[in-house]
Design goal:
Layout (H helix, E strand, L loop, with lengths): L1 E6 L2 E4 L4 E9 L4 E9 L5 E8 L4 E3 L7 E6 L4 E6 L8 E9 L5 E2 L3 E6 L1
């Protein structure tokens, strides 16, 4: 079993910043990748950033240069630093982990609202 808890969401003005955190606990020894997804109102969930156990990162075009994903392997925590936030970034942000010997898992999400 694994549990993921996201935090750090909130209400922010356009141009502002937020830092999301995702803490994994339980069966986490084989995590090989951590992702952040964004679900905007009325839209499908989409991948915005991912980081592998080796530190390789990937970003959606819409967030490149504004968002930074990082990971503290000792704390089994992934972070998403979001700068220059735009109203289009509003939505629920979910953490997802991929594991080498077990199924992937999702967190419950954290809400981000960007006011124009």
């Amino acid at each position: 079993q694994v549990q993921l808890v996201e935090s750090g969401g909130g209400l922010v003005q356009a141009g502002g910043s937020l830092r999301l955190s995702c803490v994994a606990s339980g069966r986490v020894f084989d995590i090989n990748r951590m992702d952040w997804y964004h679900k905007a109102p009325g839209k499908q969930r989409e991948l915005v950033a991912s980081i592998t156990s080796g530190g390789n990162t990937n970003y959606a075009e819409s967030v490149k240069g504004r968002f930074t994903i990082s990971r503290d392997s000792l704390k089994n925590t992934a972070y998403l630093q979001m700068n220059s936030l735009q109203p289009g970034d509003t939505g629920t942000y979910y953490c997802k982990i991929h594991r080498a010997y077990s199924s992937s898992a999702w967190g419950q999400g954290t809400q981000v609202t960007v006011m124009s």
